[in-house]
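[SOLVED] Predicted holo structure with zinc ion

Edit: marking solved, answer below. Original request kept for reference. I posted the sequence and ligand SMILES and asked for the 3D complex as structure tokens.
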Amino acid sequence: MSEIRWDLVKQNWVAVAANRALKPNDFPIAKMGLKAPAAGGFCPFCEGNENFTPPEITAYRPKSQANEKGWLVRAIPNKFSAFTLEGELVKTDSGIFSCYNGLGEHEVIIEDPRHGVEFHDLSPERIETVLNIFKERYQDLSSDARIKYIQIYKNRGMFAGASLEHCHSQIVGLPFVPQENSGLPKYYRDNNRCLLCDMLAQETASEERLICKTDHFTLICPYAPRFPYETWIVPQRHCEHFADINEEEVRDLARVLKKLTGVIMDCLDNPSYNLVFNTAPVNVEPEAGYHWYMELTPRLLVNAAVEIAAGIYMNPVAPELSAAMLREIMS
Ligand SMILES: [Zn+2]
Ligand SMILES: [Zn+2]
């Protein structure tokens, strides 16, 4: 079980594994040194190894039975979850410090039964199925009043934090709302308008950082990107929660994601990347100004001291230049 500790200085939550610790040699980067990780070996996410994972939560399987072969997409509890969805949130004080128990949910979505198939290799129809399973899990998790925020994300490659190479994403249900997107409700309070809708209008008019527009989504390199080639995928329809995405938008988004991840893999020479969903909190007093969107952040650099110490990201690629390059290839 983890503890969710409050960092008084940085004003941030940190999930700390309170009773188990990785040994110094267990860390992938330490193991690797400067060599590429070895491929192959046993993989619990491969078809036929269903018994090596916890029983599935849901799956897309045209014919077969639960926890057998024959699935196409499979959602399972994370065996090494930092969180457990049991009991209530309990605060514990220790002098000036305070923490909460690790209440929450951590799930894995395995996106293909075959090992070595990457997200950008999946058919648009398969990515649609993956998005529909994200939506189903989001709806289910949001029905638990103890969960306040649902984070869907993908870590692809070691420098993005992936510990298994089999194509998968993860969902974390958290008992608190992260600070990360607090600029959205703040902008609404100050201006009585949605920040992302205003941003889409300005970026579309100027075209400087616009990559492309599809029927339902606009792709931009954001004005102040933390990472080189950081790309945002923003739905044109103002919508707070990812789970309110409609069928047509799912279809369109699947095609956008396939194309964008393929282009990023080609242009940036097979990089590690994170793909994350930003969405409104759930089960809290509603606040206006949220507009869900996705971020794709290639991980071409390792965070350095100034990012850790000052929180200032040093980005060597201007978004105007990365947008121009991606615009040419995406269109
Ligand atoms: Zn595998
Ligand atoms: Zn909006």
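OP edit: Residues 28 and 163 are 7 Å apart (CA to CA). Thanks to everyone who chimed in.
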